[in-house]
Amino acid sequence: MRFWVIQSLNGLALGGLLFLLSSGFSLIFGLMRVANLSHGAYFMLGAYVGLSVLNAGYGFWTAVVAGALTIAILGGVIERVLLRRLAGRTFSQVLVTLGIAFIIADSSLLVWSGDPMPLPVPRGLMGAVPVFGVFFPKYRLAVVGISIVTAVALWALLERTRLGAMIRAGVDDMEMARALGIPVPRLFTAVFCLGAALAGMGGVLGGPILSVYPGLDMDMLPLALIVLILGGPGSLPGAFAGSFFIGFLYTFGQALFPQLAYVILFLPMVAALVLRPKGLFGARAA
Amino acid sequence: MSRHVFGLAVLLAVLPARAAEKEPVRVGFLTVNSGALAAGGRQMGEGLTLYLKEHGNKLAGRSIEVVTLDTAGQPATTRTRTQEAVERYKVHVIIGPLAAFEALAINDYVKQVKVPVISPSAAAEDLTQRSPNPWFVRAVGSSAQPNQPFGEYAAKTLKYKRIATIGDDFAFGHETTAGFQRAFEDSGGKVVQKQWAPLNVADYGSYVAGIKPDVDAIYASFAGANGLRFLRQYAEYGLKVPVLGNMTTVDEGILKNMGDEALGVVSCGWYSAAIDTPANRKFVEAFRAAHSADPGYYSAGAYTAAMFLDLALQKVHGKVEDKDAFMKALRSLDVQDSFRGPMRIDERGNPVLTVYIRKVERKDGRLQNTVVQTYPGVSQFWKYDPKTFLAQPVYSRDNPKASNLEP
Lengths: 286, 407
Description:
Chain A is an all-alpha fold. Chain A has helices at residues 2-32, 39-55, 60-83, 90-112, 138-160, 162-172, 174-179, 184-210, 216-231, 236-256, 261-275; strands at 128-131, 134-137. In chain A, strands 1-2 form a two-stranded antiparallel ribbon. In chain A, a hairpin with a 2-residue loop joins β1 and β2 (134-137). Chain B has two domains: 7-122 and 277-339, 3-Layer(aba) Sandwich (Rossmann fold); 147-275 and 354-391, Rossmann fold (3-Layer(aba) Sandwich), CATH 3.40.50.2300. Helix content of chain B is 40%, strand content 22%. Chain B has helices at residues 2-22, 38-54, 75-88, 100-113, 147-156, 171-186, 205-210, 226-236, 252-255, 278-291, 297-315, 323-331, 386-391; strands at 25-31, 58-59, 62-70, 93-95, 117-119, 136-138, 162-168, 190-197, 217-221, 243-245, 266-269, 334-338, 341-345, 351-363, 366-378. In chain B, α8 (226-236) links the parallel β9 (217-221) and β10 (243-245). Chain B is globular, with a radius of gyration of 23 Å.
């Protein structure tokens, strides 16, 4: 019993982190048809920025906002300056994002050295609390909470606002949206900024659990890809369900069949690609 | 006129000899400057530079020219870089590479071109056991070397009976854990649970939650950033089971970024920055002054490698060009007063050294690995007979077999 409760909570916590990472990834892919391979690097850079803000003496939540904002601006600049010039050439765009990932990784090494560094847990969230009879770290519960709040906010943004309606229109049928006079280029920038901000925020929030170290970027990127393929590109419910599904699968896979942890992780992805290319909730094939 | 000719002839005869004498010893330094292993690479560089600086960049009367090559932590690149070092830069000796899989990748090439290699880090057992390379000398211990006495210490001194292990799922994690398990069980202990975590696992939560809560201690074998991440997540769950670690789990290189979660971790290694001898205090002070950090696995390893180079060069009076004599000198080193204690190279190129059992304590506001026990003169075979030791397959995930696992 204890085992199932703890591992379920673990699955939830990892799922929460994955949602922050992959919701932006999925939105960008859904709208722009670009697999942003620098998304893992955004996640890592966000964590590093958060670390610097913390070291400068500011609080944890300031660091979260700073991480999100910095990466949002960076994402916006990259979209405007680089990706836009390659509009329509998806393959080139993907390669550029991969290049950017390497540049970010090596620059981070230069600035923050290669030493692994943990981000401190915010003061009020240290220690563990009893949940269903087991002690579980407070901070992980908070991450789950934050990811759910974020999901609701994103849902409201997409379903209840004009901007959201335009994004949905763009995901569903780009040509038609364009024909109807939706300012698609501006939409691209907005979505790219939003996705990048989510990754940056996820990086800072993940810091106290994962620490930040060179290689974090490439550890996270495959997970975002799996979630995207499972959940369906551009679908928020898909990213949400996919994240928690992978969170559980990863956690229980490791605990029950440690030798097969990665097989268990990637098999559903392969199955989804073959049997249901649209993913669980997607409108279009990945 | 005849005198002039004679003078010229003398001059010509002397010049090349002089020139040869003044030519620097070229050292190929294979390190990692990019990617996930870069922190270790940087620390190796710091150790090497410090030794050369302390000696005015001159060893055995010859100046030293270091050619630094970035292997990026990739075996294939390591192979190319080694070839570049040997064929393009014509290095006399190689210090490096960092990772065991890199060392394995160049093993055959090194044998083929016969270039002396001093390993400042790579610990894979078989490099000095079942497939020894006559051109290879290790400046650090083999993976299991400190862990075998540690297994005995855990059973006999700490009186632990049941232990759960967790480690990185790659050769270094397997070999360290295997050595610990073998000596621990030979001393009457039982390893009741073994967990392996993939090297780049995002979260140790599920492993920590899976640890049997009733064991006497947990033995953790992690490298790189993983020790830091594991101990932190371990503390997060509020587990009270004592933690034992291999050397790199609480290495000085990452200890500086740890907090209270590391306090009390008992570990084993062939070095600790807190060894209380004049030679080590001098080394640590110099290192702190130069890099404002404590030396750990990689810096101490590279510093030792430079020291080995120095001592072997002295033995052959700087004539590194005589490869066979130089290699013989290197393989027969016997140092009495090093900062790590006495060291002697055995017939397979691995040092017989002092193993330190360390405990993480806070002193003067910083964490350190206080030495609580020393085992002098430990060979890579520990108390086992080398012949029977080598007749068995190399330490691995499932060798020796864990026969005391509990469901």
